[in-house]
Design a protein that fits this description.
Blueprint lengths: L6 H8 L1 H12 L2 E2 H8 L3 H13 L3 E6 L2 E6 L1 H23 L8
Antiparallel strand pairs: 1-3, 2-3
Length: 104
């Protein structure tokens, strides 16, 4: 059984600021102003990262007056966590069966 992990999503989450944003949004829904305060990032930089997260489907938006709130989509995180769990299970089964390719 070949197990693969969504490499595009890994690239999106690999950025330290985006990972910090995801961690903050796991705790509560926040607007850009809150995220600027929490991360110390410049608003334009933060907006660019939020755009990447939005386009990857990691976060969704909710307009509220003149602000836009961001919410983490937990099913996306659960999906990638499941992919890693499958990969770990495959590695465990391979180790237990002592599977290795012979050298020529």
């Amino acid at each position: 059984m070949m197990t693969s992990v969504d490499t595009d999503l890994i690239r999106v989450l690999a950025d330290p600021l985006r990972l910090q944003i995801v961690t903050l949004l796991a705790r509560e829904t926040l607007c850009t102003t809150h995220l600027v305060e929490e991360t110390g990032a410049k608003q334009t930089n933060l907006s660019n990262h939020l755009k990447v997260l939005r386009e990857a489907g990691v976060v969704e938006t909710e307009p509220c007056g003149r602000y836009i709130y961001y919410r983490l989509r937990p099913e996306v995180i659960e999906g990638i966590a499941g992919q890693f769990a499958d990969l770990a299970a495959t590695a465990r089964a391979t180790a237990e069966a002592n599977l290795k390719r012979s050298c020529p």
